[in-house]
Backbone:
C-alpha cells in the first residue's frame, strides 16, 4: 500500500513537472514540515469511530488519513469536536481541515470549502416498531401536524423537513443522537431523523425491539459529505482532491469505507461543483 | 457498565483535564477577585469605575458565550489562545467577577474601628490592608469562596464546547459510541462528586488555619 502510494506520488510529481512546475500550496508545505494535520472529527459513528483508548478511526478519518499520506503528511491528529463547532474551528484556523459527515450544503459553502464528496448515503427515520403513523417521507410528517420529529439543529434533516412542509414547532433538537433515540423511546417524539448509516448504527447499538428503521427516505437527495477546509485553502483543496481521486481510482477507497457500511459507488458522479452554488 | 469501564483511558484523561482546568481557573479567579474586589473600595474613582465595568461585564454575560468569544472570535482579530488557555481565561474571569464581591464584602465586614485604629497608628494603606484588614477579612471570605470553587468545578463542564476534552466531553463520546445513557453519566456524576468532596476537604483544611476560633467549615457537619 505504501509502495503504491509512493509510486502514485512520484507519478503525480512527474506528471505535474511535465505540465508546469509542481508548486505546493503553503498549507501543504506547512503540514508536511510539521508531519501532521490537525483534523476536526465529529463524534458520529460510523463516520467516525472512537476506540476505548481515544484513538480516532471510522470511515471519514480513515479516508483523510489515506489521502494525507498520499500527499506526504504522515500523521493525522484528530480533534473530536461538536458539529456546531466545526465551521467556526475552520474559520478560526483551529484545525487544518474537518471531516466526518459534514454534508455539503449550499449555505455552508458560503463559509467553508469542500473537497469532492467522500461519503454519500441515503436518509433514514427511526420510528416505534410497526411504524404506527406510517411515516415514509418528510411529507408524511408534514401531513400530521400533531406529530413531533427530533433531529439535530442545523443538520440537513432539519432543512429537508422544513422545505417539505413540516412546521418549525414540530421539530425538536437533540444535542447528541443518543438523546434523540432516548426521546423516541420515552414517547416524547414520534420520529427520529438522521443520516441512514448513522441511524442504523445507533439502532444496532441501542438494540431496542420497540424501534424500527425506515430507510431510504424517498423524496430527499442523497446526502454527501466531504472534507472541509478554510476558505483560503483552495490550493490545498485542489491537492487534496487530486489525491482523493487517485485513491478512488485504485479501489483502496472502497476498501476503506465499505467495512463501515458506506458505498464507494454512491460518490460516483457526485461533486461539490454541483452541490455548492457557483461551484465554490 | 462493562462497555463504559472499557473506556477508562479516556475517562482518566478527562478527569485530569477537568482537575487541571479547575485548579488553573481557580488560581486566576482568586487573583482577579482580590484585584477587582479591592479596586472596588479604592479612593480613586477611575479605579472603582473600571472595576465595576469588569464586574458587570463578566457577571452579566454567560460564561459559555465568553468562552466561545475567546476561542472562536478573538482568533479572527489575530488573538490566538489554545483551548485550555481560553477555557481558563473565560472561567477564571467569570468566577473572578463573583469572587470580587466576596472580597469586597469580606473587607467591608471588618469593623470600622479596625480601619480607624490602623489609620491612627499611621500605617500605610498597604500595611493597613496586609496586616490588619485582610487577615480579619479572610475567615469571612472562606465559606463563600468554598462555594464558588465547587461552582467553578461544575462550570468546567461547559468547556467541552470549545473542544477541551474534559470529563463531560468524554461522557458524550462514550455515550455516542455505545448508545448507553445511564452508565456514562452515572460514572461522571460519581467522579464529579468525588472531586467536589476533595475540594470541600481542602477548603476546610484552609478554613481551620484561618478560623480564629470561629466555625467556618463548609462541609455539612454539625
Residues:
Amino acid at each position: 500500500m505504501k509502495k503504491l502510494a509512493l509510486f502514485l506520488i512520484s507519478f503525480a510529481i512527474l506528471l505535474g513537472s511535465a505540465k508546469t512546475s509542481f508548486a505546493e500550496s503553503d498549507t501543504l508545505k506547512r503540514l508536511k514540515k510539521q508531519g501532521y494535520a490537525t483534523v476536526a472529527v465529529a463524534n458520529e459513528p460510523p463516520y467516525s469511530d472512537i476506540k476505548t483508548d481515544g484513538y480516532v478511526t471510522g470511515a471519514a478519518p480513515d479516508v483523510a488519513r489515506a489521502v494525507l499520506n498520499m500527499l506526504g503528511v504522515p500523521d493525522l491528529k484528530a480533534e473530536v469536536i461538536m458539529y456546531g463547532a466545526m465551521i467556526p474551528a475552520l474559520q478560526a484556523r483551529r484545525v487544518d481541515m474537518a471531516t466526518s459527515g459534514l454534508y455539503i450544503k449550499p449555505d455552508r459553502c458560503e463559509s467553508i470549502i469542500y473537497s469532492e464528496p467522500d461519503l454519500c448515503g441515503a436518509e433514514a427515520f427511526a420510528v416505534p416498531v410497526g411504524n404506527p403513523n406510517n411515516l415514509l417521507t418528510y411529507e408524511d410528517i408534514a401531513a400530521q401536524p400533531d406529530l413531533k420529529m427530533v433531529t439535530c439543529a442545523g443538520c440537513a434533516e432539519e432543512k429537508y423537513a422544513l422545505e417539505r412542509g413540516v412546521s418549525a414547532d414540530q421539530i425538536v433538537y437533540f444535542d447528541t443522537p443518543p438523546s434523540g433515540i432516548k426521546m423516541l423511546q420515552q414517547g416524547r417524539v414520534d420520529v427520529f431523523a438522521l443520516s441512514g448509516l448513522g441511524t442504523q448504527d445507533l439502532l444496532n447499538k441501542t438494540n431496542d425491539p420497540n424501534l424500527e428503521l425506515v430507510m431510504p427516505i424517498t423524496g430527499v437527495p442523497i446526502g454527501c459529505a466531504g472534507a472541509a477546509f478554510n476558505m483560503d485553502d483552495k490550493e490545498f483543496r485542489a491537492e487534496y482532491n487530486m489525491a482523493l481521486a487517485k485513491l478512488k481510482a485504485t479501489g483502496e477507497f472502497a476498501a476503506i469505507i465499505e467495512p463501515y457500511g458506506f458505498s464507494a459507488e454512491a460518490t460516483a458522479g457526485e461533486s461539490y461543483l454541483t452541490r455548492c452554488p457557483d461551484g465554490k | 457498565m462493562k462497555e463504559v469501564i472499557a473506556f477508562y483511558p479516556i475517562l482518566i484523561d478527562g478527569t485530569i483535564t477537568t482537575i487541571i482546568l479547575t485548579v488553573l481557573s481557580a488560581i486566576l479567579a482568586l487573583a482577579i477577585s482580590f484585584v477587582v474586589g479591592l479596586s472596588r473600595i479604592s479612593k480613586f474613582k477611575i479605579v472603582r469605575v473600571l472595576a465595576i465595568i469588569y464586574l458587570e461585564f463578566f457577571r452579566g454575560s454567560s460564561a459559555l458565550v465568553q468562552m466561545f468569544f475567546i476561542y472562536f472570535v478573538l482568533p479572527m482579530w489575530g488573538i490566538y489562545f489554545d483551548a485550555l488557555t481560553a477555557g481558563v481565561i473565560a472561567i477564571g474571569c467569570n468566577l473572578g467577577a463573583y469572587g470580587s464581591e466576596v472580597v469586597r464584602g469580606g473587607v467591608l465586614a471588618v469593623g470600622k474601628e479596625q480601619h480607624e485604629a490602623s489609620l491612627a497608628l499611621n500605617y500605610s494603606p498597604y500595611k493597613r490592608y496586609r496586616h490588619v484588614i485582610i487577615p480579619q477579612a479572610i475567615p469571612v471570605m472562606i465559606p463563600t469562596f468554598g462555594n464558588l470553587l465547587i461552582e467553578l468545578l461544575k462550570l468546567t463542564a461547559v468547556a467541552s464546547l470549545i473542544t477541551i476534552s474534559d470529563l463531560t466531553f468524554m461522557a458524550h463520546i462514550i455515550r455516542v459510541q455505545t448508545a448507553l445513557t445511564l452508565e456514562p453519566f452515572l460514572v461522571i456524576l460519581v467522579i464529579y462528586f468525588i472531586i467536589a468532596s476533595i475540594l470541600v476537604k481542602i477548603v476546610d483544611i484552609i478554613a481551620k488555619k484561618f478560623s480564629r476560633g470561629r466555625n467556618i467549615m463548609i462541609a455539612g457537619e454539625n
Remarks:
- Residues 2-120+223-279 of chain A form a domain with the D-Maltodextrin-Binding Protein; domain 2 fold (CATH 3.40.190.10).
- The first strand of chain A starts at residue 36 and ends at 41.
